[in-house]
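Example with several molecule types.
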Amino acid sequence: MTAWKNIAASLDPPIPAEDAERIAPVLEALEQSFRPLVRSIPQGADVWTAPE
Amino acid sequence: MTIVEAAAALRVKRVSSVELTRESLTGIGRSNPKLNAFITVTPEQALAQAAERDVELARGMDRGPLHGIPIAHKDLVCTKGVLTTAGSRLFADFVPDFDAEVAARLNEAGAVTVGKTGLHELAYGITSTNPHYGAVRNPWNTDAIPGGSSGGSGAAVAAGLVAMATGTDTGGSIRIPSSFCGTVGLKPTYEAVSRRGVLALSLTFDHIGPMTRTVRDAAISFNAISEANYVPPASVDIAGLRIGIPRNFFFAHLDPEVEEAVRKAIATAVTLGAVVKEVSLPDIAALNTVGRILLLSEAVSVLRPYLGRRTDFGQDVLALLDQGRMISAADYLDAQRLRRLMYQEFTRVWADVDCIFTPATPMVAPLIGQRTVQTGTIIEDVRLAATRFARSINILGIPALAMPVGFSASRLPVGLQILAPARREDVLLKVGAALEDALALTMRGRTMETA
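Resulting structure tokens for the full complex:
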């Protein structure tokens, strides 16, 4: 699990602890759906540029 | 009046641009206290511009169908000498000394700008309940949201205050208010309309487009603002057109009234000779996840200079910016790689169909302040529900049209979304116009709360 609250505190300007507390579950859920997608990226896949 | 109707009336001298503009300004004066659709109204400037347009027409100078027609701009479209707030306290006093490209093009086409419409703060949300400029209200039920972020444009067009207003769409911000307000909204192909001079939210999927009362008016407006030399389709014959109906995602978790109206629109297209074919689309939920990573990150990049001014942001926007600040650069780039892969996968569907029909939103307009909504058998966050069918399309950069196809029992409009391959706005506008004629949806015959 990512330590969202630690990251929030380390930013400049920092994100206040109570705000970090509120958004951590949202980020955790997003991470849960994003991580498996990242694992599916084939080697050499390039970034999007524009509709072809 | 629609653009088509007003343009005809102007040319037979049944009405003047000054009269149309006065009518628009009177309507705004009457309705804006209830709707809060406008942040700024520019009566002197508009009437002077209208008088000039009348003189031009009298001298035989005709700039085309928008000549002398009152319009409005979403208040993040820069307009020379006119306050442009982006619905934010950060830009509360910002008066640009230039016109955005889209505003310049509409001026050149002869349109008369009557004011700047309200929006969700910084275009970063879908309610248009703005903590700094107040809640924009839906003309069909003033207790309901108009959608967003182009909520003021949707409300102004739906209430007949202007025939056309500009909108921007980063995750549904033209199509969601069009769905909730019963207007037509065109999100063109990415960069088909210049973003120059429009305050950004994202760096790779902000889209600019028209919001109107009819599909034909959207075609006229797109013709005026598009970078390419777009010519509106002359025919609305859709016999043989292949319409894709998604097997997956878009018809799951829907308000039954929305599904019924959209299915009726599909059946109507069939009676016009279109051929319907079921299609399987790539994982749209995954595409939405990718879209959230991209938008959260890019909005931070755009607004980085202001991040220290926490008290100048509304709570919902601040929470999104805070989330974006915690996404890594590697995750952002991986999201852009996934975006390309998903685009390539999605593109394969165009071998089988010419366009795709989906609901524009899974539900009709929720009430102001409502946090969750029931869509079919599930209860979900209003923002996530409203963007569920729209966000992925921004990530693909393909064009999409939202148009009204019915009403709920609670007298709120239901929106259809039509998708087409990149740079095929002509397909959207043709099938949209055909449906509009066939459904004969009498939006103006319905009673709005503001009437």
